[in-house]
From TrEMBL:
Job description of the protein: Catalyzes the phosphorylation of the position 2 hydroxy group of 4-diphosphocytidyl-2C-methyl-D-erythritol.
Catalytic machinery residues: K19, D148
Domain GHMP kinase C-terminal: 223-279
EC number: 2.7.1.148
UniProt cross-references to InterPro entries, sorted A to Z: GHMP_kinase_C_dom, GHMP_kinase_C_sf, GHMP_kinase_N_dom, IspE, Ribosomal_Su5_D2-typ_SF, Ribsml_uS5_D2-typ_fold_subgr
PANTHER family linked to this entry: 4-DIPHOSPHOCYTIDYL-2-C-METHYL-D-ERYTHRITOL KINASE, CHLOROPLASTIC
This protein's UniProt keywords: ATP-binding, Isoprene biosynthesis, Kinase, Nucleotide-binding, Transferase
Catalytic reaction annotation: 4-CDP-2-C-methyl-D-erythritol + ATP = 4-CDP-2-C-methyl-D-erythritol 2-phosphate + ADP + H(+)
Residues that coordinate or bind ATP: P106, V107, A108, S109, G110, I111, G112, G113, G114, S115, A116
Residue ranges of every copy of the GHMP kinase N-terminal domain listed in the record: 77-153
Protein name: 4-diphosphocytidyl-2-C-methyl-D-erythritol kinase
Underlying gene: ispE
Protein's pathway: Isoprenoid biosynthesis; isopentenyl diphosphate biosynthesis via DXP pathway; isopentenyl diphosphate from 1-deoxy-D-xylulose 5-phosphate: step 3/6
Length: 298
């Protein structure tokens, strides 16, 4: 990151919040191989940050704990693909841009870092280029970048169905005190899907009229992440990290997305902070982050 504060250094900045699958049910498979999912999704108050500046020529710079991991990855980098796709849609108005990505989230970790970065790029460049797309066109463009990108454009509590593109806001979802934990082993999403034993699992039943955290916790506790068993085969540390979170007092632990990040929900942010500090002391080489998720009312 440049010397000055992030917001002062860049004309336009965007947060790319970590995406957390509170539940993920695999309910079927489309003819093209993509899986049909029912997901209850929320977003954390931590994530990557992106900055955008007009420039003489396109440029892309990286910083942050996980910036190194992405260096040299220009062909597959979702930020650059999002820039190019939006520019194609805009045409002549899309002047060259310097994009800076502060990569604070682990890569390939089930909390949507790449998808959130792509979504933040779409939001940021629309502001920088002084243009907007109708919501439906933006969602369709986002979907071309990845199944999780449309929900990251929304970045608020929601239910996503289909392959992730049928989105419905969940305004009643409360904020949760959480610890995100990852053994820093990247997981291949296609490989996790390939290892699924069953693809026709029961859909997610969202009870109506839930109030307060306790009701939501019970409902989430009764739901599942169907990708957790196959991911545990690939990364045995997921079981270890889940037990560590439980040992520190988590009320509920589960894996997010295709892993390997697990989350623990705690009774308060004080408890979440204490747990993250203690866990970091035990395994300084792993990733532990205390965070409060945003509520549906925002
Ligand atoms: O859309 P995205 O690029 O994020 O997906 C990565 C891979 O995960 C896909 O190529 C596919 O193998 C798998 N996937 C799936 N069903 C989904 C989402 C992803 O099978 N709904």
């Amino acid at each position: 990151m440049p010397e000055k504060g992030f917001a002062e250094a860049f004309g336009v900045t965007e947060e790319a919040r970590a995406k957390i699958n509170l539940a993920l049910h695999v309910t079927g498979q489309r003819a093209d191989g993509y899986h049909l999912l029912d997901m209850l999704v929320t977003f954390a108050d931590c994530g990557d940050r992106l900055g955008f500046l007009p420039a003489k020529a396109d440029a892309f710079t990286l910083s942050g704990r996980f910036g190194e991991t992405l260096a040299g990855d220009s062909g597959t980098n979702l930020v650059l693909r999002a820039r190019d796709l939006l520019r194609e849609a805009v045409g002549v108005l899309a002047f060259p841009v310097h994009i800076h990505l502060e990569k604070n989230l682990p890569v390939a970790s089930g909390i949507g870092g790449g998808s959130a970065d792509a979504a933040a790029t779409l939001r940021g460049l629309m502001r920088l280029w002084g243009m907007s797309l109708p919501a439906e066109a933006l969602a369709a463009l986002a979907l071309r970048l990845g199944a999780d990108v449309p929900m990251c454009v929304e970045s608020r509590p929601l239910i996503a169905r289909g392959i992730g593109e049928q989105i419905e806001a969940v305004p009643d979802l409360p904020a949760f005190a959480m610890v995100l934990a990852n053994p820093l082993k990247g997981v291949s999403t296609p490989e996790v899907f390939r290892r699924l034993a069953t693809k026709n699992n029961p859909s997610l039943n969202l009870a109506s009229g839930l109030t307060g955290s306790a009701g939501w916790l019970a409902m989430i506790g009764a739901a599942r992440n169907d990708l957790e068993p196959p991911a545990r085969q690939l990364v045995p540390e997921i079981a270890v990290i889940s037990a560590m979170l439980q040992g520190r007092g988590a009320l509920l632990t589960r894996m997010s997305g295709s892993g390997a990040t697990c989350f623990g929900i705690f009774a308060s942010m004080v408890e979440a902070q204490e747990a993250a500090t203690a866990l970091h002391g035990t395994r300084p080489d792993w990733y532990f982050q205390a965070t409060e998720t945003i509520s549906g009312g925002m």
